[in-house]
Amino acid sequence: MQQVCADVAPVVGTGVVADYIPALAKVPIDRFGIAVQTTDGDMACAGDAREPFSIQSIAKVFTLTLALEHRGDALWSRVGKEPSGDPFNSLVQLEHECGIPRNPLINAGALVVADCLVSDHPRPLDTLLQRVRSLSDAGVHYDDTVAESELATSDRNASMAHLMKSFGNLENPVKAVLDTYCYQCSLAMDCCALASAFSYLASGGVHRGRASNTGDVVRIVDPARARRINALMLTCGTYDRAGEFAYEVGVPAKSGVGGGIVAIVPGRGTVAVWSPGLGPSGNSLAGVEALKRFVSLTGWSVF
Ligand code: GLU
């Protein structure tokens, strides 16, 4: 990991921060952190791995996991499983495809998932926070400044939600769905917490308590669902660069415009990286470089 930090140093600080959400425009661009948790619970981290950041779209995997618990396969009648090939916040396909988003990891799909959570849980944001805290230890919270900043500038997401509502693909009022969506995106946590929180997807659906040292084993999803969520992350998790990312890095991953990327290596572990400078598709430039370097040094891959 020290080697990875040294190798990516020239890329850290390049790219642009996500300034379309005003609160994210203020994040210093020169940060880089990496954390790895192996499936037997060992954790290692380097750089700014203990600095919390806004996980943004990475939260879409947690909400998908929760929605599948209540909806099961019925969810797939309201959202697809195909990569979109379009930017994460595009409206174009939605009109052509009658309000059914391509997949749950782009904004439109995550809005449908948020709609399910609003219907299925009396306090969906509390349920989500509790789940993420239970998977990652303390230190996870909603960043109200980021959430309010996004809510104040969420015209595109509101447009998608209204369009889907007009096609009958939202059960709840647009405002309730958008509030939930913007708050889920504002979840703040550090690389170590993120690597821990995603470990269930590297371990066939099982989370092992780490921080408590209790060795508690909790089943979060069954092995088949873990495989399927990983498949969606591989094909749809890194915006309209998912093909390139699979080619270059070769593991399931989800990125967020806060500069985080979490990668899953089934049977091996999870790798969380963070660096706020983004490339044109919204993936962290130094983050992608670090994962490329990490998998080439370790040989961790699904291929
Ligand atoms: N909150 C962001 C948005 O809806 C999430 C985008 C992302 O991280 O991909 O635009």
Give the fraction of residues assigned to helices: 40-55%
Strand content: 5-15%
Number of domains: 1
Mean pLDDT: 95
Give an account of the 3D structure.
The structure is a single chain. With 303 residues, this protein is α+β, with helices and mostly antiparallel strands. It has one domain (2-298): Beta-lactamase, CATH 3.40.710. Helix content is 43%, strand content 13%. The strands form 3 sheets. The chain has a 5-stranded antiparallel β-sheet. Strands 3-5-4 form a 3-stranded antiparallel β-sheet. The chain has a two-stranded antiparallel ribbon with strand order 6-7. The model has no long low-confidence stretch (mean pLDDT 95). The protein binds glutamic acid. Glutamic acid binds at residues 56-57, 88-89, 107, 150, 157, 185, 256-257, 282.
Give me some keywords for this one.
single chain; 303 residues; alpha+beta; five-stranded antiparallel β-sheet; three-stranded antiparallel β-sheet; 13% strand; binds glutamic acid
In short:
The chain has 303 residues and is α+β, with helices and mostly antiparallel strands.
Question: Topology of this protein?
Answer:
Blueprint: H1 2-8, E1 33-38, E2 43-47, E3 53-54, H2 59-71, H3 92-96, H4 107-120, H5 124-136, E4 141-142, H6 144-152, H7 155-166, H8 174-185, E5 187-189, H9 191-197, H10 199-202, E6 206-208, E7 217-219, H11 223-236, H12 242-248, E8 253-255, E9 260-265, E10 269-274, H13 285-298
Antiparallel strand pairs: 1-2, 1-10, 3-5, 4-5, 6-7, 8-9, 9-10
This protein binds glutamic acid.
The site of glutamic acid has 11 residues, from loops.
